[in-house]
Amino acid sequence: MSAVRERLPEGRYGRSADERADHKLKITGAVLGVLFLGLLGWFGWYYVVDSRISAETIKFEVVSDTEVQVHLEVRKDTAAHGVCTLRSRSEDGAEVGRKDVRFDEASDRIDRVVTLRTTARATSAELIGCTAG
After folding, report:
1. What CA–CA distances, in Å, run from 119 to 34, 88, 92, 101?
2. Which of 22, 61, 64, 124 registers the highest number of CB atoms within 10 A of its CB?
3. In a 3-state reduction of DSSP, which class is residue 132?
4. How much is the pLDDT for 86?
5. Residue 68: which residues within 8 A CB-CB, separation 6 or more?
């Protein structure tokens, strides 16, 4: 009896169709990976360098059942104007107060105590974020 070969001899007829498809997939994956990393770098650069206003909550004090005082420190370009959004939550996590605070001063560092009115007793106050404009 004769033995039946299922595969062609290696190297005799060039690359197989599977090898060509694998090579194309590797190239496509590499190109997409480079594009993704470039996009991620661009977003990171935009977030770090182009952000003209930043702030942090120094402290907060619950003054009454309907009021919280928040001490903010804002850093920005001298000519920049912006808005920072504050939020206050009750003990159960529900939002009981929100306020947008505008910063138009021609200064690069601003310390301000902001009064935030609430609909119920607050247990926290937080800075949600700031936008230039």
Report:
1. 50, 10, 14, 18
2. 124
3. strand
4. 95
5. 60, 61, 62, 88, 97, 115, 116, 118, 122, 125
